[in-house]
Every structure is written in C-alpha cells, then in structure tokens.
Please model this.
Amino acid sequence: MNPLGEIRGRSFAKPVGRVKLSLGGVLTTKGKFFLYDCRCNVMELESAYLVIDAQLDRFLVLRTPLGSCCVSLEYDGFQRVYDRLSKRFGFRDDLFQKYRQEKRPVKLRLWRKMAPANYSILEGSFSDTSKGFEIQFPHKEFISWDLPLAELKKKKNIKIKWNSFGSRWLMFKQPVRIGNLTLKNLKVLLYKPRLDAPVLHFQAKCYDRANTDQSYWELKQNLKKMREVETIGGYERADQNHFSISIGGMRIELTYTYDSTYGFDSRGTTIEIFNDRDYEDLRIDQKYESVMEVSAFTPLQKEIVLIGDYKKDKSVQRRPPLLTASCGEQPVIWTDRSNGKIGFADNKQALLYDFHALERIAIQNTLPAKGAGYSELKVGIKGTAHYQTVFRGGCYCFDDYAPAFKQLSNKPVKFLPETMDV
Model:
C-alpha cells in the first residue's frame, strides 16, 4: 500500500462534498458549503459563471429560472460534471482554465443562453394605456384593468400553467398590447388571489436580439413618450437600472440587473404592471354590516395598525360604521356573539374571522437594533400551520393587553421568542 494513502492516483481522504449529474440532467450537490446544497435541472440552464468569492472559495454557478446552483470546484465529481456540461453547452473552457486558480475575487460568465427577441414597439400613439390591454390575433379583444380575475380566467386566449414551485401562472396565448408596446410573454402569478378583485400584478421578461440592456433603454424611452403619464421615477446604477411611470392608477416598472458582487446579468428587462387603484366596493360587506353587533370589545393604542390588503384577502374590509359608533375611533378587538365572529380593526379597516376558526393568539416583540423595533399580534387559524399577523405597533405595546385578549377571545395567548430589528 502506498504510504501516502493512495492507490493508482486515487486518494482515500474524505471528500469535502459531492456533485452528481444524472443522465436525465438533474444536478445535485451536498457537502462543506451546505448553505449552497442544491438540486436543479441543467436542461433549464440560462447561464454559467466561474465565481471566486472574497474568501477565495471557488464555484461554478449555474443559473436557472428557479435561481442559482453553486457547485464547489473542490467537490468530488466536479471535473466529470463540468466536462459534461461544457460539452453540452459550449462553456468558455479557456476562461475557466485561465482564472480558476486566481488569488482574488472573480466573476466570469462562461456561457449564456440566447433568448429570442419578444417585444415590439408600434408606430403611432395610443390613448388607452390607462384603460387596459388588448389581446392580439386572431380576433383582438380589449380587456379592462378593472376586470375581476374570475372573469379574466374565462377568456379563450387564457391558459393556466403550473410552475416548479407548485404555483399557477395565468398566461396569454397571444401577444398583448399595452399602449404601443406589444409583449409576447405577459403572465400573472396566481398565489391565493381574490377572484372578485382585478389582477394586481402582471409581469414579463423582455429581450432584445442581443440579450443586452438595449431592451431597457428602448423600453424606457418608449414609456416616457406614452400619453397620460402622471409621474416618473427611477435610478440607474452600475449594478441595476430601474424606471417607473404611473398612468391612471396603474404603475409600470422596468428593471435590468448587471453582473456585480451580489448580482448576475439578467439578459433582459423585467417589466411589471401594478394595479394601485382603489376598489371601495370590495371593502364593504353589506350582508354582515346589516346584522352585526358588538358584544364585547377591548380598545387599543391609537398608533396600532392592522396588517392586511383587502384587494388580496376577502377577510379584510372597511371598519364597520357601527363599530366606530359603539367603540369610538381607536383600534379595537371585538366579539359578535350573535353572528359567531371576532374582529380586529384599526381606524380605517377591519379583519373578521369566524369565532370557531380562531384557535390561538400570540404576541411577538422585535427589539430595537438597526431598526426601531416593533410588536405584532398574531392569530392561529384552524387548518393553517403558521400564525397570521393581524396588528403591528411599538415594541411591547401588546404585552399589557394579554389578559384582556384571553378573556375576550377565550383563547390561549402565547408570547413567541423575541427577535431583533436588524
């Protein structure tokens, strides 16, 4: 036996980690850099980088639509995996070999996938950007930004697809025109949406032919020229460009990211459309307000605010007028024995639950650090594993109310471990 512990050039030293690539293209890593342990499908690869960080640890970073997979050059099996990937995709082996032993931080792109150009700017001017968008061929159909999601899903040019995280995407089968901009891949993430509310967030990735920041500059100039523009904002830095406009309660944003210490070149510009409009009818529960009663209540400090968005959560509604008439204008928790409800309200909105669905109440304090600190009142709802934050206020503001919460709700009140506001 070789006294150095080697047979035929193979060491018996325990590897610091392993990387494997299956015949089907699934890459897995596990080892010393456990925070980077990952599993990804290399057939979805968008780019590959050689990265040497500030500690001079060396990685092959594989970028996919689901994020980055970092493979240490120290891991057992690395060279075999690298050779297979390089042969399949055509990595810049010359750059990899030249810089892999550098004694300084490095970030070098070895390969990237080229995406086809997928947007176009039409000649002329359109005055309907604030009204909605138009699905193109074969029969054009104009869709209002205010159309409820339940109605939008019924359109013939709509399809629903699942992604790798188990979420659903609403996608358009045909290009969509917004003003004089035509997009081929506009989509909407459907994450527990409120069906009677309109879509609040559209997005698309826009590529020019060269997959560069030219897409950002073209789209920016086009947005600036759109009619009806009310406000303009943004910034342009070495690591990222961002531009936004608002038109009739709709906000359109562009973002392009460059290679930097903590970022990677995005190859294309992300365009996002946000619906910032108010829909007062969604905040009013006339059926409940017509029969509600206040059986008991606990008033709270006026600085406490309710956490929730009525456009996303049907449980969030306006503060019922009867509540203000009975309890004043301050934040409050109340019970309604006649209707089996328990409610939480600040001076503007309220959150209502069936009494039997509320299982527990918790208080969590976040101590001042970099931030000023705060406190949250949380509830545990039957059938859910995690607490939902209901109220937020100053640090320790809920502590003295714990006995009153327990008496009012007849539910246990727990103090969760304190955290730091970093």
Residues 1-11 have pLDDT under 50 and may be disordered. DSSP finds seven helices and 33 strands in the chain. The first strand starts at residue 6 and ends at 7.
